[in-house]
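Handout, section B. The chain below has 186 residues.
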Amino acid sequence: MSHVGNWEVAVHLLKKLLPEMDLLLYMGVKHKEQIEGIQKNELDRAGIRIVAVGPEGGSPFDLVEGINLLKTGGFVSMTGDILWHKDQRKVQVRFLEHEVSVPQVPHLLSLLSGKPLFVFFSFRTGKGEYLFKASKPIYVQAETRSERNWAIRESAQKYADILGENIREYPAQWYHFEPFLGRKMP
């Protein structure tokens, strides 16, 4: 997911429609955010597992949990448009004619688990009305270890292209509050 539209509505609806679905959300933690705490408690009560990652980063075991869940048929959701800490692994891509950095982890999880990556959006279209969109599956595959970086970069670029298309369609629903766009690209 990205910080576009209302992901929280989508997660609650998805869990309501498919209560047996095993879902894990990786979420960033901001200090002194009371609303964030309320959100996390509501998600936990709805049976949605959460891995909270602070500004200092998470544990490698957090990733192992996600890979194992994917391999057993569960779903993992994490943001693709925000870097939570300065040392986070990232990939440079072209986005809306600018160079930007996006997290490497969603693409790495897909590669390591052998499961496809989907880009998902939940747009508000009216009072109590939402449009849910998911991309076609993105397969992140590398035959050799030396091809991994290329496969991850290609997947990250596909993500950036899909994100850009949807932001052009719903620009007022992109809630990215940090500087994101890098240098303008020719």
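Note. DSSP finds five helices and seven strands in the chain. Compare this with the example in section A.
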